Structures are given as structure tokens and as C-alpha cells.
Amino acid sequence: MIRLFLLFFLLVTSVAANKVIYLSYDNVPQRVIKGEIFPITLKSLSTVRDFEDIEYKFSNKSGLKILNEIPDRVEKGKYFYDTFYLLSTARWAKLPDVNATLIASEDYNSTLIRGSKLNVVTLNPRKNFSKIIANNFEIIEYKTTIFDNNHNIIVLVAHAQNSDIQAMHFENVFKQGIESASESYLDSKITYFLVIDKKIENFSFSYFNLLQNKFSTIIIPIVVEDDSVTTQSDLKPKDQSKERLKMQIAGVIALIAFVFILWRRKYIYLILLIIPLIYIAYLAVPEQEICIKQGAQIRLLPVDNGTIFETASSQYTLLKEGSVDNFVKVKLKNEKIGWVKNEDICSY
After folding, report:
1. Using CA atoms, how far apart are residues 313 and 72, in angstroms rounded to an integer?
2. Whole-angstrom distance, CA of residue 40 vs CA of residue 65
3. Is residue 175 within 8 Å of 309, Cβ to Cβ?
């Protein structure tokens, strides 16, 4: 019996002697929300002085996504505090088992700790929930323009802290999508478009504020802008009724000038007639038509990664509405406005 005890003691002593990393979970949240980004901190102590770094390998995690492979490290005395950020993706989650190994000139035994189950809470939001869970979320800028006869399009730029901003999604909208988004989860930015019913006067949605532990509401007043600017949101077609009105006014001015010339019989005043006639001729020039190639991709916005809502099934002509950089704005046969790359324009 004593001999067995001594053997067991020697085995335990040998294992302890070979242990070069003491590892534990130092900071684990008591509760997380499904869709929340949260930190976990590993506390480690090395009994070896001469080493380059500590390498972590994760296994057996469930309902979680690890967002950073390289931890944020803080040194306090002999201890390392390494923080990783995780995204909760399911209603049930378990922290990963962690295997820590020293990166050094010699080979040392690794240390393994087991992960525990997490308390995950699932939100029960209203229908206007944007799927955004964040410490803070705000709209930096937005623009509303006409999309077609029945819809307007909102292009917004938003900023969020501690958020999976690419999870943004809205219910009951005609069309939506991400145009661009930063990959930083701690401080992120997104450009997003929404095609909504023209009858909506205020577009409101909610997000969950982690710091306040409640849903917050954001309201976007729908004010359709009439100005034509060469930006991503330059989507408004040319108003032909205004062009006709301008031609009528110029015609009246030309008629008055003609009567004035006949009355005064001084042909030097012909210039008063020529100017409005030139303007009428300019307005009367038909809209330019362009040919687009078969397979041309028609985008919602003039950006390389813009959402493609239609692909030309054959070669055909469309009305040109304008141009921005490497894109041409076109009016489709269904009155929708889109953008086509210059390289997709037919060359003759």
C-alpha cells in the first residue's frame, strides 16, 4: 500500500515538474446575448523565463465564433492576461478547451484547460429589429432618392461599437443589402441601402444597446432629395416635365423678341431672338441612348462591389442619365435607375 502511494506521489511530482504554464480563465461573462460580441481573458504564468510567446489552440467550442487569433495582451508582473473576442451564434454555447504551448528553443509540455457552458439569452424583439446588438449604434449620414414609381431608396452610413455590424437586416422592405463594411468588430462602419415603399414617411428601426441593456429606436425621416449630385446616391432620373416647361418659357421669350424686332426694325436685336432659340434647340436634343453588352451587370449604386439587381440577357439600348467615374447611369425599360460599368458599354 505504501509502495503504491509512493509511486502515485512520484508520478504527480513528475507531472508538476514538467508543467511550464499555469493557465486559467480569468474573465468570463456571467451572461451573453445571442449575437453579442464579448471578451474572455486567459491568465497564464510561465515557469520558463526564456521563451518567445505563448501559442493557444482552441477546440470543442460550441455556439461561438472566435474573432481574433492574436490576443490583446496585458502583462502584470509575471502574469500574462490574453483577451480574445467571441461572437455568440446560437442559443446554447460552450467555451472552448484551450491548449497553451510555449514557443521556445526547447520543446515543453503544453497545458490544457476545459471550457465551461455559457448562459446564453435570446432576445424577443419587435418586427422592426435591425439584428444589431452593440454598445452604441448611430447613423452618420443618409440620403433618400427615387428608386422607381413605387419605391424610394435610402443609402445610409452607420457606425457601431462592439458589434457584428454585418448582421444588419430589416424585415418588410422591398430590397436591401450591404455596399461596404469595415471588418473591425470593436469599431465598425457600414454603408447600407434600403428600398422601401414610397408611402413610408418615416423609417424607424431598433437595435439592442448592451450598455443600457435595452432596445433603442432610430428614426429616419424620408425626405426625397431633388438635387442631382455625382455620389453613390445619385439615383434620381431626369424630370422631363421640367424640360418641357423650360422650352415653353424660352419659346415665349423668342416670340416677344421677334415682335420687338418687327416693331423697332433694328436687326441688331436679332441676338435677343437667337439666344432663346439656341436654348430651345439644346433642350430639344433627344436623350442619349447607349448600348449595353449581353451579360452586363446593372448595379443599384456606382461602386465596384455594389449590389447587382439585373443582368442583361441580351444586347440592347437604354437611356443614359449621367455618369460618375467608371460608371454610367441608365434608365431601364421598367423605369428603374441603375449603373453600368463603362467596360460593359458596346463599342462600335
Report:
1. 51
2. 12
3. yes
Q: What is the pTM of this model?
A: 0.66
C-alpha torsion 77→80→85→86, nearest 10? -130
Query: Under DSSP, is residue 224 helix (H, G, I), strand (E, B) or coil?
Result: strand
**80, 198 contact by CB (below 8 A):** no
Of 221, 222, 163, 233, the closest CA to residue 191 belongs to 233
DSSP code per residue over 258-299? HHHHHHH--GGGHHHHHHHHHHHHHHHSPPPEEEE-TTPEEE
Residue among 74, 125, 117, 124 nearest 93 (CA): 117
Q: What distance in Å separates the CA atoms of residue 110 and residue 18, rounded to the nearest whole number?
A: 9
Q: Are 224 and 152 in contact (CB under 8 A)?
A: yes
Please compute the mean of the pLDDT values over residues 108-121 and round it to a whole number. 92
User: How many residues does the structure list for the chain?
Assistant: 348
**DSSP assignment of 200-239:** -SEEEEEEEETTTTEEEEEEEE--B-----SSTT--PPP-
Q: Are 331 and 339 in contact (CB under 8 A)?
A: no
Highest mean pLDDT among 89-98, 255-264, 273-282: 89-98
Secondary structure E strands in 104-186: 111-113, 117-118, 120-121, 129-134, 136-146, 151-161, 175-181
Strand partners, 133: 208
Give the contacts of 161 (CB within 8 A, at least 6 positions apart).
134, 135, 136, 137, 186, 187, 188
Residue 82: φ, ψ to 5° = -105, 120
What letter would DSSP give residue 345?
A: B
- 329 Cβ partners below 8 Å, 6+ apart? 234, 235, 302, 320, 321, 322, 323, 337, 338, 339
Residue 211: which of 158, 140, 161, 139 has the closest Cα?
161
Q: Are 304 and 256 in contact (CB under 8 A)?
A: no
Burial class (CB in 10 A: 0-12, 13-18, 19+), 35: buried
Report d(CA 111, CA 56) in Å as an integer: 10
Cβ-contact 218, 207 below 8 angstroms? yes
pLDDT of 230: 34
The SS3 assignment for 197 reads: strand
